[in-house]
Prior knowledge:
Blueprint: E1 9-13, H1 18-29, E2 33-38, H2 41-49, E3 55-58, H3 64-78, E4 83-86, H4 101-129, E5 132-137, H5 150-170, E6 175-182, H6 188-193, H7 206-215, H8 225-236, E7 247-250
Parallel strand pairs: 1-2, 1-4, 2-3, 4-5, 5-6, 6-7
Helix pairs in contact: 1-8, 3-4, 4-5
Amino acid sequence: MDLGLKNKVALVTGGSSGIGLAIAQKLGAEGCCVAVAGRDKAKLNAAVEGISGARGFAGDVRDPPQVAKLVDDVIAAFGRIDIVVSNAGTHLPGRMEDVETSALLRHLETKVIGAWELAKCVTPHMRKGGGGRFIVIIGQAGKVPQANGIASTISNAAQHAFVKSLSDDLARDNIHVNAVCPSRIKSPLTDALGHLYNEIYYGRSLEQQESKWGAEVPLGRWGTPEDIANAVVFLASARADFIVGANIDVDGGHQRMIF
């Protein structure tokens, strides 16, 4: 099935590993010209090697001038931007007493202010080009608040509000704003977080914990970064022309809310 993405220009932040890298690879396989953004130049160089026609762009989305430069550099390199995937950020674990206010601020700068600046900088170019796609990757804590992930709950919920408000604003310009919401995805992020789950305090091994986590998913397994990438590619394509302001759960049925 032709998704109509050939020669589209896609910018993926946090694109040098895990879910972001899978998204960049999948978009590249569909014929997009991919700009992969991240903070680590060495990781960026390694990431773009396997993606035909891709280029790496170093920058920190927490810094507004760097976001503006990133967008300007991608426009200079490719002439336009048709698709943006805002994927930068991680999970910030801990209860309120465990999280320093400065850490929460950095978290909000990455996941909320970074996406905000990215949208502000890229929107004029998308308007000039007749439309585009702006897709935000949002972790499950935004829909499923958790005491031991309160900082991520706050930032992710703000991302959901941002996506819905921005979609209302930009739909008239044919700029489709949507979210993809992963849960139980096996990636470098979840590998690093394994020891932080509550089960560790019951004396269970990591292997036992992972087995239990998989059993909590109706499909009976964890997902992969490629599962997220497939949803992103769909939303970026013409097949999703009437989807705006949506958040699509890619979680094997794990998340329990009904809307």
